[in-house]
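Protein in question kept in full:
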Amino acid sequence: MSKHHIAFLEIRVLPWRPRRRTINPDDLRDAAPDSLDFFDDVAGLVIGVVMMIVLYVAAPVVAVVLAILFLPVELGLVLAIAVLLLLARFTGLIPWTVLVADGMEEERREKFRLLHRAVRRVRELNGGGTPRVVWTWS
């Protein structure tokens, strides 16, 4: 191995990579209803204004009540997912990644099932010492 290799233990908080999704604006315009038909008469305008006032008053109250009711459920779900991800990581179901950077070539990633093997590889490439760690979200 060359002395120019620098290796990092890459830890992803989320082991999957979310894909970016885009929506075609023309599809949105075609699917939207023609809202001008609703406000053709005065009754439609009055109903629309009353509904907007009700929504502006009721929506924050409903949002606060639902947030208070579902907070324990959401916290429990987040904690359960975090524990499951940690168990999957340390049992080897989600591999550890060693990121090898070289000034001449592109970066490459090596995968290891067990943490001690990944750390050994990082130390081997860096010539010993404390392994460098890179944290990424996905």
